């Protein structure tokens, strides 16, 4: 017997993924959407995102279907991705001797600190070795102002990899944080439309 439920789905502009990939569904309008925000990010070509509310069913075989979908918002997710990258950098700050400007930037995202934080993390990523170097590279990517989609993906991948045996838990935490960022931007956009 199918189980009906409602869920959020995410999509970034770009090439459509293989719709058979884990976590990807086809909405009724033919849009490929992901049940995972992090999964959508890893297929993104631009920062333009969309969030859908889907209604569907889980059948006896465990296959999920998006039978009805409502577009909640379409927006530039750049700020959400930048906040997510800073989160990734914060998760590994204790793994390397990060300078104060890096700590301050990943804590607050002050644009005035970004260039200095990026330079410090970039230099450290060349001087350090092992896990310290990887952690510095996470900060380097999180402080980069250009090529946001690819740098955020790198920051997330490296931060999760530093989790070692706890990589699955690290990815799950990243999923929750990125989904929360995207849903907060969706809510903010909805509120702006109402006002």
What does this protein structure show overall?
Helix 2 packs antiparallel against helix 5, helix 3 crosses helix 4 (111-127) and helix 5 runs antiparallel to helix 6. By secondary structure, the chain is α+β, with helices and mostly antiparallel strands. 52% of the residues lie in helices and 21% in strands. It has a 3-stranded antiparallel sheet with strand order 1-4-5. The protein has 2 domains: 3-76, no CATH class; 79-184, no CATH class. The protein is built from 7 helices and 5 strands; from the N terminus they run E-E-E-H-E-E-H-H-H-H-H-H. The longest helix has 28 residues, at 167-194. The protein has helices at 37-41, 78-91, 100-108, 111-127, 130-142, 148-162, 167-194, and strands at 3-12, 24-26, 32-34, 48-58, 64-76.
Mean pLDDT: 88
Number of helices: 7
Profile the largest sheet: 3 strands, antiparallel
Distance between the termini: 43 Å
Strand order of the largest sheet: 1-4-5
Radius of gyration: 18 Å
Model regions low in confidence, pLDDT < 50 over at least 5 residues: none
Binned, the helix content reads 40-55%
Going by helix content, strand content and strand pairing, the class is alpha+beta
């Amino acid at each position: 017997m199918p189980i009906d439920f409602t869920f959020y789905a995410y999509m970034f502009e770009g090439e459509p993924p293989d719709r058979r990939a884990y976590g990807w569904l086809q909405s009724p309008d033919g849009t490929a959407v992901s049940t995972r925000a992090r999964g959508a990010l890893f297929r993104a070509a631009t920062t333009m995102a969309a969030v859908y509310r889907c209604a569907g069913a889980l059948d006896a075989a465990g296959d999920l279907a998006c039978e009805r979908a409502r577009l909640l918002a379409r927006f530039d997710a750049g700020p959400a991705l930048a906040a997510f990258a800073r989160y990734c950098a914060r998760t590994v700050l204790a793994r390397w001797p990060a300078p104060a400007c890096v700590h301050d930037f990943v804590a607050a995202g002050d644009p005035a600190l970004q260039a200095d934080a990026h330079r410090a993390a970039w230099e450290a990523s060349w001087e350090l070795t092992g896990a310290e170097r990887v952690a510095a590279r996470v900060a380097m990517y999180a402080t980069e102002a250009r090529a946001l989609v690819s740098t955020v993906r790198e920051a997330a991948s490296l931060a999760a990899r530093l989790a070692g045996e706890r990589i699955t838990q690290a990815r799950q935490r990243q999923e929750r944080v990125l989904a929360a960022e995207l849903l907060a931007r969706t809510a903010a956009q909805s509120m702006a439309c109402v006002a």
